[in-house]
Amino acid sequence: xxxxxxxxxxxxxxxxxxxxxxxxxxxxxxxxxxxxxxxxxxxxxxxxxxxxxxxxxxxxxxxxxxxxxxxxxxxxxxxxxxxxxxxxxxxxxxxxxxxxxxxxxxxxxxxx
Length: 112
Hints:
Blueprint: H1 3-12, H2 15-28, H3 33-45, H4 49-62, H5 67-77, H6 82-95, H7 100-111
Helix pairs in contact: 2-3, 3-4, 3-5, 4-5, 6-7
C-alpha cells in the first residue's frame, strides 16, 4: 500500500487505533522517518501534545526548513497554553536563532 493510501486509511481510524497501528509498525521499522512522523501526529491526536512537541522539536533541529515538520510542530503546539508554547519556542530559538519560522511562531504565541 502506498504511503498516501495508508495515510488516508490511518486518518479514518479512531485516534487510539491510529496510535496502536503506528506503534506496532514502528516495532518492525524503528527508524522509518515517515512512520515516526505519523507517530507524532497520532500522539497529538491522542492528547499527548508535549511528547509530540518533543519529537517535532528534535526533527526541526535536523531539518529546520521542512514544511511538514514545521506544520507538525505548529499543530502539536497549538493546544498548549500560549506561555508554554512561548517557552518551548524560545528554547528552540536558542539553537536556531535565524529561523524565521520559529520567530513567527513565537510572535503568534505571544499574541494570544
